[in-house]
């Protein structure tokens, strides 16, 4: 398939699916209780899915002593601790970036 | 329209969201860079940020397409990453029940991680569906507008930003900021830990299927641990 066409197909289909997910309980199932099992499972979507997305961006290659002692892993770990205690997006991101820049400056 | 923009609740929602918008600048920029790398022209990049309006979905779609993953895998991965919106929708539904359908349709479109967090706080603090909806609309529109601008900055200026600034690191940081505060319950920790293990253990799977598989694995483990703990404490 042509690249532009593929991109637009992804935009329209994923956009529609995302919108339907967002609208689901607000509009369609407003009168209905969510099935208890689904409600319980959905609670773990962010932690599971976002962790699966984040780690390959932070750890480059298979986990080993060499890849886990990298500036990115250390900066991400510090950011996670800051996020856990502060619940503050801006603080988490600033500290994470600052640690990464600091480590890269020292190691260069 | 003008009376909506003039209402104090709308303005409050809008201004309260501005610090979060600042945090999204690097994230949006990276999404724009990703769209450019995936071979999108300006209008396609703008379509991504305006219609998909989800950083996780945009980044995943750009990366997977740039790596030549099949269409169905791209759509499926983005859909699973977007399943968290189901949860937000269910949590938001009781507060929006009394509103007209067009308000529900508009607010659903603006439902994002950041807008959800801010609006739930507000709905819980004050029992006022109309004011809360205006607050939500203000914050949601601030995010949406800021998102288009930052995506375009990334799309056009992305190659001017020196690689040694490691701006791409803002993406995992943004997700870490969303996840970390929730890692205070055993089932959530188990969900994250098993997803972490699975994403590396299954790294050999083709077409980045390890992302979806690890996500589903984490959801199942989190749910099972939740049930097990409930039975344990019920004894």
Structural class of chain B: mainly alpha
What is the chains' assembly state? heterodimer
Roughly how many Å apart are the termini of chain A?
A: 44 Å
Strand content of chain B: under 5%
Counted up, domains of chain A total 2
The total number of structural domains of chain B is 2
Q: Helix tally of chain A?
A: 6
Secondary structural class of chain A: mainly alpha
Radius of gyration of chain A, in Å, reads 20 Å
Low-confidence regions of chain A: none
Number of helices of chain B: 12
The helix content of chain B, as a percent range, equals over 70%
Report, as a whole number of angstroms, the end-to-end distance of chain B: 57 Å
Residue-averaged pLDDT of chain A, rounded? 89
Structure description:
The complex is a heterodimer of chains A (108) and B (235). Chain A is an all-alpha fold. Chain A is 80% helix and 0% strand. Chain A folds into 2 domains: 1-32; 43-107, no CATH class. The longest helix of chain A has 26 residues, at 3-28. Chain B has 235 residues and is mainly α. Helix content of chain B is 79%, strand content 0%. Chain B contains 12 helices and no strands. In chain B, helix 11 (186-201) runs antiparallel to helix 12. At the A-B interface, helix 1, helix 2, helix 3, helix 5 and helix 6 of A face helix 2, helix 3, helix 4, helix 5 and helix 6 of B.
What labels describe this entry?
heterodimer, A: 108 residues, mainly alpha, 2 domains, 0% strand, extended, B: 235 residues, 79% helix, globular
